[in-house]
Amino acid sequence: MTDNHFTGKRVTVMGLGILGGGVGVARYLAEHGAIVTVTDGKDADALQTSIDQLAGLPITFHLGGHEPRDFTAGGADIVVRNPGVPRRSPWLQAARAEGVSIEMEMSIFFRGCVAPILGVTGTKGKTTVSTLIGEMLRQWKPETLLAGNMGISALGELDRLTPETPVVLELSSWQLEALDEHMLGPHVAVLTNISEDHLNPYDGYEDYARTKRTIGHHLGPDDFVVYNACQADTRRIAHETRARLVSFGDRTAAGDAVWADDERIHARWQGTMLSWLRPDHLSLAGETGAANASAAVAAALAYGAPPDAIGAGLRGFRGVPNRLEEVGVVDGVTYINDTSATAPAAAIATIGVLAARANRLHLIAGGADKQSNLTPLAAAIAASGATVSLLDGSATASLGALLNEHGVVSQGPFGSMAEALAAARRDAVAGDTVALSPGCASFGIFRNEFDRGEQFRAEVRRVAAAAPMKAGSHE
Fold first, then answer.
1. CA angle 92, 95, 97 (to 5 degrees)
2. What is the pLDDT of residues 66-99, one digit of tens each?
């Protein structure tokens, strides 16, 4: 069915990318009657995989740069901005100056979605929390949609949704910018935590933190905000929303609340006490795992899921790729892919979990700078007793210097995952753990964090394939 809102409209999609979001929105618009132009600073060779997915659709491509007409009233009625496009891009400023509407995939999805939306944001944990919520809701309603900032286009699923279909979306700060601009929000908003990350596009930490809290700014009294009661910056959302409040992490908090101890997850929900066994899964271990599990339980309760479905989702959860993902065990050494720990706070949490379980931790860290404070990461590494192999990148020299100040001798920097892994495992023995948990962005020697994680997996597979021969040698 053609969406009358887009029929005949000239729409410029700015940013095709390679992670699926640009493809999803371009396909949706073309299939719903829009006259679509896709423009990207990268050339066709770099974007060929995405271009191939749009084959056969009436789409014009302007690649390797942008054309002014695509952002003016003479050439476009709407500009759809990819999350990777800075909010202050001069191209967007030119479009706004001429009255051209600026949208993003999420603003289009929110207006078109007939089902109540559960949205999850935060500096870290949002993919794990979103996925765990999805597991819980699927135990209740198998048709549940899980999409958003995880390489899954929400728009591609929009036409199949009914008012009864649960919808769970992971939302980045960039996606929230569009929702805030158009005064949109979910039915249940989840704010996992806030710490320094992705500060480059923002006017410092406070600007970034405020953007995260906008997830609760446009809600009504029948909606819910699920927030971390253990952080001052997340608690501020309670004073910035009209929605009903559900806290997690602090059993002393007033009102509806969810918290965890070593064995169980507890909920005080609408005058009733509930509890579930806490899963013994690496991705839900430690304080961070307890917080993630509690956030998911609180969100599922707010959305209306029955307690038995929540319990089944907890029991069935198997983690998320690229986040505390056990890739394999070779010669007694465990290999963990935590490439999505792109912020220092995420890597610190991982170090805490893994160092407590391993005889010794061998860490692969470093990468591209996001203007984050790396001092706490260096301190956590020093306290853990981990060895460190550094990946090359714009933040690595600073991290290496901080490690040196904390008495940690690091190896590298290395220009490939193969070199970094070889160095990390050189002194590893049975009972140790080798982990990729960079605390930095991936750009430079990797296409993105997922490419970094896949290269780590590939190297571990290579090590595993060579292990029998190594075990039988006489070295």
1. 110
2. 999 999 999 999 999 998 898 899 999 999 999 9
Determine if the pTM surpasses 0.85.
yes
Q: Which residues pair with 364 in a beta bridge?
A: 389, 436
Rounded distance between C-alpha atoms, residue 399 and residue 372, angstroms: 11
User: Same CATH topology for 106-316 and 325-468?
Assistant: no
How is the chain split into domains, by residue range?
10-103, 106-316, 325-468
Residue tagged 């929390």 (tokens): 129
The class that CATH gives domain 325-468 is alpha beta
The tens digit of pLDDT for each residue in 294-348 reads 999 999 999 999 999 999 999 999 999 999 999 999 999 999 999 999 989 899 9
106-316 belongs to CATH 2.30.110.10 = no
Q: Give the three-class secondary structure for 220.
A: coil
Mean pLDDT, residues 153-177: 94
Closest to 367 in 3D by CA, of 434, 443, 436: 443
Can you spell out the DSSP letters for 43-76? Answer: -HHHHHHHHHHTTTS-EEEEESB--GGGGSTTT-
| 8 Å CB contact between 237 and 212 | no
Q: Which fold has domain 10-103?
A: Rossmann fold (3.40.50)
